[in-house]
Amino acid sequence: MHQHRRPFIVRFLAVCVTASLSWATGADAPPGQRIFYTGHSFHMFVPGMIEAMVKTTDIQGHKLAGKQGIGGSKVIQHWELAEGQNVAKQALTRGEVDVFTMASHLLSPDPGITNFVKLGLEHNPSMRFLVQASWYPFDLPAPEPGQPDRRTKDNAQRDGMKIADLQAAIDGWRANIEAQVAALNLQQGKACVFIVPVGDAVVKLRAMVVAGEFPGVTKQSALFRDPIGHGHGSIMALAAYCNFVAIYRISPVGHTAPERSINAAQHAILQQIAWDTVSKYAPAGVK
């Protein structure tokens, strides 16, 4: 870590430590939720991390209701999974779920989101649905015909990516998700479908790396392990922290995900990025 960056890190960690170490203790703890996770490889590491984080709180009644992962999947693929294998539909039909997660994958609107919301509410009218708006695969969208392809084809290319371009890609993708979610909530007459802005949090982390403000990481490429964008520990923990905030609507500060490849200082920064990103984003439903 560069000498001139140390004061920033010290100040940042001081804010993190004092911000909300008392969250989810005693009477402040929110009620436990029965959570079912569906998604792809940018999301399905989240359940295990959430389980470990909840154990650091006083939350009572939390339960992993189940999980269903399909690599590279759109939500509609989870809906169309054969009935005998579709544990997501089975759990919803039994009314055993309070929070149901889905991970968007470029298709928008995705009819799978609509179908799961309808089925879930039929059997538990008070349940919530979370749609993870992930970071962009290969960093950028496919080009228009005749335009150059600027997507990441080698992980090292990430080091030259401009933060403004990354954010613009996320903004466009997220806007499509927002439109579908808003329509669903209008149709249901209440807010029951929410968005977890993980992609925005990842862009913030990459901006900190570029600015030299994330200790121990000097290159954007060091956050990822392949061109598509599967993340190393920092990305995985950040996604888990964002989902924790959306699920329990409390700060993750002081509740560390079980990712040993990153140190305490890095965890503290990731927790604060997640809290700031999700709590200030209205469609996440965190007040």
How would you portray this structure in words?
This protein has helices at 6-19, 46-54, 75-79, 87-93, 111-123, 163-188, 198-210, 233-248, 264-279; strands at 34-39, 63-69, 99-103, 128-132, 193-196. The protein is α/β, with parallel strands linked by helices and 287 residues long. The protein has one domain: Rossmann fold. Helix 5 (111-123) links the parallel strand 3 and strand 4. Helix 2 (46-54) packs across helix 8 (233-248).
Number of strands: 5
N/C terminus separation: 35 Å
User: Globular, elongated, flat, extended or rod-shaped: what is the shape?
Assistant: globular
CATH H-level name... which superfamily? Answer: SGNH hydrolase
**SS summary, helix count:** 9
Measured by DSSP, the beta-strand proportion falls in 5-15%
Q: In the CATH scheme, what's the topology name?
A: Rossmann fold
- The average pLDDT is 92
The low-confidence parts are: 1-22
**Biggest β-sheet: count, sense, barrel?**
5 strands, parallel
Our Rg estimate from Cα atoms comes to 19 Å
Q: Can you tell me the CATH architecture?
A: 3-Layer(aba) Sandwich
CATH class annotation? Alpha Beta
As a percent range, the share of helical residues equals 40-55%
Q: What is the count of structural domains?
A: 1
Spatial order of the strands in the main sheet?
A: 2-1-3-4-5
Helical/strand content category: alpha/beta
Helix-strand pattern: HEHEHHEHEHEHHH
